[in-house]
């Protein structure tokens, strides 16, 4: 069992690639450092994605998220970096990352970044009669 952070994102084959389905992951213990003060920033990350051929392995994701703990970064930059790394590793049909940062100086920050695969459109929702 690894006890060190890692920047490697392991994946596994999507068990149902013929279907659009959503994987939702909540990461409540994300931390990085403020690039101005060096003080810790805390956030909850909400990751939603519709996989294509690959899914992210959760322990690898945990170790990857841990790798940001001692890095200074602006909220906007770190959110987009994480999304870019995940998109590069998974090549999903759709991915959305919302980073909900804790209050700092009386200000809350939420950053939302999205990716849609070229040519992919979301399915039309079915309206049920009840």
TrEMBL record:
It catalyses: 7-aminomethyl-7-carbaguanine + 2 NADP(+) = 7-cyano-7-carbaguanine + 2 NADPH + 3 H(+). Pathway: tRNA modification; tRNA-queuosine biosynthesis. Its EC number is 1.7.1.13. Gene3D superfamilies: 3.30.1130.10. Pfam families: QueF (PF14489). Keywords: Cytoplasm, NADP, Oxidoreductase, Queuosine biosynthesis. Its main location: cytoplasm. The active site is at residues 34, 41. It is found in: Cytoplasm. The keyword Ribosomal protein does not apply. HAMAP family: QueF_type1 (MF_00818). Belongs to the GTP cyclohydrolase I family. QueF type 1 subfamily. This is NADPH-dependent 7-cyano-7-deazaguanine reductase. It comes from Alkalilimnicola ehrlichii.
């Amino acid at each position: 069992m690894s006890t060190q952070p890692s920047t490697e994102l392991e994946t596994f084959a999507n068990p149902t690639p013929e279907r659009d389905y959503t994987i939702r992951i909540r990461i409540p213990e994300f931390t990085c450092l403020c690039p101005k003060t060096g003080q810790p920033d805390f956030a909850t990350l909400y990751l939603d994605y519709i996989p294509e051929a690959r899914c992210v392995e959760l322990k690898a994701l945990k170790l990857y998220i841990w790798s940001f703990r001692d890095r200074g970064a602006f909220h906007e930059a770190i959110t987009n970096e994480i999304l870019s790394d995940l998109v590069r590793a998974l090549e999903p049909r759709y991915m959305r990352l919302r980073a909900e940062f804790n209050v700092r100086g009386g200000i809350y920050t939420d950053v939302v970044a999205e990716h849609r695969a070229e040519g992919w459109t979301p399915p039309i929702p079915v309206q049920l009669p009840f």
